[in-house]
């Protein structure tokens, strides 16, 4: 290896690390071939894709370093490329996928609004700001379609990613624990951290690092509800006391469930448009019916009254 390449911390941070087994297998493959089968991709001398291959070559200088330059104009375009490339991997954790989608959305917004650096960029007019906002919305919707989720889920992914990055600044090493799934903290905490002021950082970071401690108040609330239900007084309906009786992140969880439902509907609609016979062919409809029955059985097992839902739905359609 004769070339010296630069490691850009931000570029590298977007790339999920390999497991020990994956890295070992990659090194064995490189040694067996005696060369890199895929070149290391660089931009302005910085590695964009191939950090692990480059690190392996450091220990095996006899193997030539194959490099290819990416023809991209801006740093934000490079970040978009990295995120989209990594989202194509199949072994991502849910946290990694959400982080990459959020980073892609943010980078694309920055790239769309780029017209020079911070010193040469003109102050945008009201019309330009409105146009940029519309472009951002279109970008959000496109990323949502590409990943079969809702647009609001993409916007929350951007907040999640910003919160994870800020947590990493405050506590180096925590990003890897979160994205690998080793540290399970509610998404709402990262969203709050992204929007919080410096005076709130310490409290939120402690809650992220010790998510178990946040479950205790909720447990007390559940006990309170149980005790009250055994008394002669009627218990309030969940929606009436919701703001006091559920954790702060409940609203975010509701949104995530709604997003999942919307994404399912959008995905099914896309499939039906691509293959209309799924709705017209009796055998294919029977197969889909079986899929739906499994889904409905799952919801019924959770205690939901599906008969009332279907009745309300029919009433709305006939109105």
From TrEMBL:
Name the UniProt record assigns to this protein: ParB/Sulfiredoxin domain-containing protein
Chain residue ranges for the region called Disordered: 113-135, 211-244
Organism: Candidatus Faecalibacterium intestinigallinarum
Biased composition (Polar residues): 223-233
Taxonomic classification: Bacteria, Bacillati, Bacillota, Clostridia, Eubacteriales
InterPro entries: ParB/Sulfiredoxin_sf
Domain of life: Bacteria
């Amino acid at each position: 290896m004769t070339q010296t390449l630069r490691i850009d911390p931000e570029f590298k941070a977007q790339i999920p690390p390999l497991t020990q087994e994956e890295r070992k297998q990659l090194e064995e493959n490189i040694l067996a071939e005696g060369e890199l089968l895929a070149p290391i991709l660089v931009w302005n001398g910085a590695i964009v894709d191939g950090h692990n291959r480059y690190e392996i070559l450091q220990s095996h200088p006899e193997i030539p370093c194959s490099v290819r330059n990416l023809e991209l104009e801006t740093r934000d375009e490079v970040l978009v490329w990295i995120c989209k490339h990594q989202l194509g991997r199949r072994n991502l954790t849910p946290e990694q996928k959400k982080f990459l989608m959020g980073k892609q959305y943010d980078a694309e917004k920055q790239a769309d609004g780029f017209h020079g650096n911070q010193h040469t960029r003109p102050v945008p007019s009201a019309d330009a700001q409105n146009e940029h906002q519309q472009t951002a919305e279109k970008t959000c919707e496109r990323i949502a379609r590409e990943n079969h989720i809702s647009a609001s889920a993409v916007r929350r992914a951007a907040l999640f990613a910003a919160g994870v990055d800020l947590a990493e600044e405050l506590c180096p090493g925590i990003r890897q624990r979160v994205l690998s799934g080793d540290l399970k903290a509610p998404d709402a905490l990262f969203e709050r951290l992204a929007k919080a002021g410096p005076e709130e950082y310490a409290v939120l970071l402690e809650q992220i690092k010790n998510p178990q401690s946040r479950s205790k108040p909720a447990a007390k609330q559940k006990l309170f509800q149980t005790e009250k239900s055994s008394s002669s007084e009627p218990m309030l309906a969940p929606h009436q006391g919701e703001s006091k009786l559920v954790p702060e992140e409940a609203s975010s969880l509701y949104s995530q469930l709604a997003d999942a439902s919307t994404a399912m509907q959008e995905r099914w609609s896309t499939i039906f448009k691509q293959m209309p016979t799924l709705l017209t062919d009796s055998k294919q409809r029977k197969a889909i019916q079986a899929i739906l029955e499994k889904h409905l059985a799952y919801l019924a097992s959770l205690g939901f009254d599906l008969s009332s839902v279907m009745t309300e739905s029919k009433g709305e359609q006939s109105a």
